């Protein structure tokens, strides 16, 4: 009779044999996805006793008012690349039971997001849902035109959505566009519904814009600054991390990506941008367009730094932007962003109830589906506010009891009532990582333990761990035993240390992937599922370096950057180690914006002085603003076409020689 340890070691040795075998078939076996373990199946089954799966109210809301939908929806760009697909989720229609590889709550939410087409919200308000991660919303005006809210993320998706609208209603004039906040999934498809020459003159008042016969683009104050800066300063890193969060590298199946909570996923078409023509600056501002009155409520610092809700008195309809979405949202988004204020978020929802709750009969928003009935929507908004307020207040309580971020995230749990509410479930944000956002907002990254003040890099720490652990095979044996016991988080942690010490350790990579995969299968949050499963994929297959599945960058955003944003970005690209001995100065004269700057690069730091030029400068660069983009892209041919240099002819070479090239496919789960 073999001892338990000998049996485990034998199993592990077989795993090693597969990992190191030269026979392709055996290697591929180790690269394959796995089924759910019994432990994962048990955890997923527990959701049936936690939640009321007989409650069909959210399903009824998600499917209510369907007017028309194509039998198959799959959208492609001009090259034939699929940028959005409901067809890929056909497995939902074919499956009679929820598989063990999916959290049943998330599966249910995915089914609801699989409801797509043109919907009537009420007489005069319509939405195209399921054509992108966001909804395209249309308000019918007195003369039969449209006011469009949030024209999706990709041009291809908004074009397809408008085709569906026109098939049913015919072609109608566009009277205005309203964009609720500056996240790209709410404005990136704007050129699918309008072109630059149709847009109203920004120099006119909003009343003059409306009467001009052209289309005003209405946004909250601060929209443009946040829209372009978020996509510039950390856009490369966000793009890579978003590939994990939104699961763009994953297939769509019962063992891959499901809904991500606020939609099925992120479209990967063409991002566009048009400068807005009017900023709403205060709560209570009213704008009437062709008989439709809109009353705005400013909600800065909630889901976005600049955001606004809108009330339509004649429809008794309250647009909640992305402040209520039928799921727990993010106080911190996994792609990376400034943390959001949970206390302010709750406050603005309650303010919306106070301002409009006595009249409103429905709420609708930029993600998921509307809710109808005054009693229903008051409860919907109040419950949503309560969740954000709970996370905020309880985290602060634990902070003041001396607990750290990681401790709090494992301690905090919603009250039983809020935990059972379908529209506050953790499909997008989670209580755990949102509590960390609250900690970060108030306390920052440091937990007050000096050991963590200046830690080693992950690779250095991993090497020391391995040095202390000694017998890596023994560590893997123990990790495999813990995997069989269902301790997937710990297994992922310890095996990832081994991967960081030696990325070629295939046994560690595969065991780490298997552990992360089970965590993904268990996740109710669509974004958590995506990041776990994407990490597992790259541990098995290596970094895919696949930019074809990422959204196309927007030249529209780049051309609307301010000169100072471009100079700041230029400074970010300079590797100070390479530029230590560079000391250059130049005047910058912009021919189109009529701006002047004196710029000084020394010891790796780029400083600039607005409205100045100096005779002592090494050179003067004269160009249109777009010429700065040729410096950032280090395109010498375009530089020669656009930039006139008076002085040191080598000034651009000296400036760009220490610039780095951004990588949208950098490693995440390995060094």
Written overview of the protein:
Among the domains are: 47-385, Metallo-beta-lactamase domain (Metallo-beta-lactamase, Chain A, 4-Layer Sandwich); 561-656, Nonspecific Lipid-transfer Protein, Chain A, CATH 3.30.1050.10. It has 26 helices and 21 strands. The strands form four sheets. The chain has an eight-stranded mixed sheet with strand order 1-4-5-6-7-8-9-10, covered by helices on one side. Strands 11-12-13-14-15-16 form a six-stranded mixed sheet. The protein is globular. By secondary structure, it is α+β, with helices and mostly antiparallel strands. A hairpin with a 5-residue loop joins strand 2 (74-76) and strand 3.
Secondary-structure blueprint:
Elements: H1 4-20, H2 24-31, H3 38-45, H4 47-50, H5 57-63, E1 66-68, E2 74-76, E3 82-85, H6 90-94, H7 104-113, E4 117-122, E5 125-129, E6 136-140, E7 146-149, H8 155-169, E8 174-178, H9 206-211, E9 217-220, H10 223-230, H11 235-245, E10 278-280, E11 286-289, E12 292-298, E13 308-312, E14 317-319, H12 342-356, E15 362-364, E16 371-372, H13 374-400, H14 405-411, H15 416-419, H16 431-443, H17 458-469, H18 472-484, H19 488-501, H20 506-522, H21 526-541, H22 555-559, H23 563-573, E17 583-590, E18 596-602, E19 605-610, E20 619-623, H24 626-632, H25 636-642, E21 644-647, H26 651-656
Parallel strand pairs: 7-8, 8-9, 9-10, 14-15, 17-20
Antiparallel strand pairs: 1-4, 2-3, 4-5, 5-6, 6-7, 11-12, 12-13, 13-14, 15-16, 17-18, 18-19, 20-21
């Amino acid at each position: 009779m073999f001892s338990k340890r000998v049996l485990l070691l034998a199993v592990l040795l077989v795993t090693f044999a597969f990992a190191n075998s030269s026979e392709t078939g055996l290697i591929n076996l180790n690269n394959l996805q796995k089924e759910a373990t019994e432990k994962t199946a048990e955890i997923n089954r527990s959701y049936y006793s936690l939640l009321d799966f007989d409650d069909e109210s959210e399903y009824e809301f998600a499917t209510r008012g369907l007017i028309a939908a194509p039998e198959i929806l799959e959208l492609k760009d001009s090259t034939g690349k699929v940028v959005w697909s409901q067809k890929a989720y056909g497995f939902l229609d074919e499956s009679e039971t929820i598989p063990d590889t999916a959290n049943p709550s998330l599966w249910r939410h995915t089914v609801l997001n699989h409801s797509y087409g043109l919907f009537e919200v009420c007489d005069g308000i319509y939405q195209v849902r399921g054509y992108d991660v966001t909804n395209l919303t249309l308000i019918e005006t007195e003369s039969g035109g449209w006011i469009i809210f949030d024209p999706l993320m990709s041009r291809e998706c908004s074009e397809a959505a408008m085709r569906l609208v026109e098939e049913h209603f015919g072609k109608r004039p566009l009277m205005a566009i309203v964009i609720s906040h500056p996240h790209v999934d709410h404005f990136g498809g704007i050129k699918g519904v309008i072109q630059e020459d149709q847009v109203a003159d920004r120099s006119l008042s909003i009343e003059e814009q409306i009467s001009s016969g052209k289309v005003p683009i209405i946004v909250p104050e601060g929209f443009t600054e946040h829209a372009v800066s978020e996509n510039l300063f950390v856009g490369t890193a966000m793009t890579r991390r978003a590939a994990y969060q939104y699961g763009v590298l994953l297939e769509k199946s019962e063992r891959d990506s499901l809904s991500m909570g606020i939609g099925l996923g992120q479209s990967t078409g063409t991002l566009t941008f048009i400068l807005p023509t009017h900023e709403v600056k205060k709560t209570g501002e009213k704008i009437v367009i062709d008989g439709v009155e809109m009353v705005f409520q400013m909600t800065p610092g909630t889901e976005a730094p600049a955001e606004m809700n809108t009330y339509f008195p004649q429809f008794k309809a309250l647009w909640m932007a992305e402040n209520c979405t039928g799921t727990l949202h993010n106080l911190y988004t996994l792609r990376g962003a400034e943390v959001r204020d949970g206390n302010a978020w709750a406050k603005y929802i309650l303010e919306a109830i106070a301002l409009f709750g006595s009249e409103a009969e429905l709420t609708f928003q930029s993600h998921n589906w509307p809710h109808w009935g005054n009693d229903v929507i008051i409860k919907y908004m109040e419950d949503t506010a309560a969740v954000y307020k709970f996370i905020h207040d309880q985290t602060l309580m634990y902070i003041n009891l001396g607990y750290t971020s990681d401790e709090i995230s494992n301690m905090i749990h919603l009250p039983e009532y809020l935990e059972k509410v379908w529209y506050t479930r953790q499909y997008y944000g989670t209580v755990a990582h949102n509590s960390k956002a609250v900690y970060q907002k108030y306390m920052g990254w440091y937990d007050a333990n000096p050991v963590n003040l200046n830690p080693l890099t992950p690779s250095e720490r991993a090497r020391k761990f391995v040095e202390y652990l000694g017998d890596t095979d023994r560590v893997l044996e123990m990790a495999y035993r813990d995997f069989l016991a269902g301790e997937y988080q710990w297994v992922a942690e310890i095996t990832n240390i081994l991967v960081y010490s030696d990325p070629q350790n295939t046994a560690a990579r595969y065991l780490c992937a298997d552990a992360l995969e089970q965590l993904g299968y268990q996740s109710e949050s669509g974004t958590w599922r995506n990041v776990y499963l994407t990490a597992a994929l790259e541990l098995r297959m290596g970094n895919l370096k696949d930019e074809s599945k990422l959204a196309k960058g927007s030249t529209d955003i780049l051309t609307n950057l301010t000169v100072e944003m471009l100079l700041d970005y230029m400074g970010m690209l300079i590797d100070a180690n390479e530029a230590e001995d560079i000391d250059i100065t130049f005047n910058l004269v912009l021919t189109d914006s009529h701006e002047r700057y004196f710029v000084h690069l020394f010891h790796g730091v780029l400083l600039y002085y607005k409205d100045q030029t100096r005779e002592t400068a090494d050179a003067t660069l004269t160009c249109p603003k777009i010429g700065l983009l040729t410096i950032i892209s280090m395109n010498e041919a375009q530089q020669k076409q656009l930039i006139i240099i008076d002085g040191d002819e080598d000034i651009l070479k000296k400036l760009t020689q220490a610039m780095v090239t951004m990588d949208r496919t950098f490693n995440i789960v390995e060094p």
